[in-house]
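pasting for the record
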Amino acid sequence: MMINIAFTYLLTQASVASESSSYSLALTTVLIVGFVAAALIGSIAWYNSKRPVGWEDKERPDFVPDVDK
């Protein structure tokens, strides 16, 4: 009887751990994708903005799209 209760407890804990693990994976994925998107959008906005002092004569990279104001 005690073995059955212990086995049931371990099985329940494994089930809860797997649900928590998939939630953590989804949350981590969303955070990484969001960070990459924010860095990319910020870089494009920075390249399309007025150049800081000392950067006025620098060329824009080819991969940055032109944005009309």
